[in-house]
Structure formats: structure tokens, C-alpha cells
Amino acid sequence: MNNKIQDEFVLNANFRMDESLRMIKICLDKLSENMIWQKPNETTNSIGNLILHLCGNITQYGIASLQGLADDRNRDEEFSVLSGYSKNDLFQKLVTTVEKAKKTILEASTEELLKKRAVQGFEFSGIGNIVHIVEHLSYHTGQIALWTKILNNKDLGFYDGIDLTVKNED
Description:
The structure is a single chain. The protein is mostly helical. It has one domain (3-152): Four Helix Bundle (Hemerythrin (Met), subunit A). It is built from 6 helices and 2 strands; from the N terminus they run αααααββα. Helix 1 runs antiparallel to helix 4. InterPro entries: DinB/YfiT-like, DUF1572. Pfam families: DUF1572.
């Protein structure tokens, strides 16, 4: 892989993960400790469960797989926990996990990024794993944002002070 392309890919993947962290932090700051464990209904997950799930997924795809480490994820547990973590605990756990993944991605060789590997029964290259963790983190960030909006009936202000109507430039 061209080093410039690899560097740009890694830079953008890491930026997107940081953006999701920023948005999740905004959401958590708007919620009480009890709200993070509330579920809209029995078929959905609490924000606490989603954050634990994100940590498990990012570790499995973005750290263990890319580093060739043992996969010791217990996915079912991520959804069965009903309490025991504060907002701060959850956010710090997520930040630590994302930072480890970003470091792993940054240090991955071209060969590791192109190498195919099996994760959760799927076969992806290292690049495929990175795309997965970025989109998966973004997907659940959107769920966290929606549930936060529903709980508070307020805009989250993710882009306060930024004019999002500016047109693209050549």
C-alpha cells in the first residue's frame, strides 16, 4: 500500500473515532447516572450496555485481531450488565479502548493491514477490521445520541458554532 494512502487512511479512521468519543462525551454529560442504564424497551440496549459492547467490539476487531492476540471477548456479558459502572467509568473504559486501537492501527504495517483474518466468523483484512470498528462505533454513537435526545428532549449541540450550510469548495 502506498504510504501516503496508508497514512491518510489511518489519520481519518482515528479522527472519526475521536469524533465519536466527543459526541458520546456530550451525551453522557447530559445524562444522570441512572439514565445510562435505562432501556427504551426490552428489545433495545441501555447506553451503558452499548458502551461496554463498543469496548468489546473494538478490542476484538481493532486490538486483538490486528495484534494477533487471544480473543477473550464475552459478547453476551456486554448486554447482560445492568449497573456497576458510573458514566465516568464507562467513558474512561471507552477512551482507553479507543486509544489502544488507534495506537494499534497507527503501528500496523502494510502487511498487517492487508492480511486476511477471521473475526466473529467473518474474514476481513486489517483494513476491513478498521472500517468495521469506525462504522460500528459511529453506528452506536448515533443510537446513544438518539436515546439521549429522547431522554432529554433537547438538541445535543454537536456542531454548535459551526455553519453546516457552507457549500463544498473545489
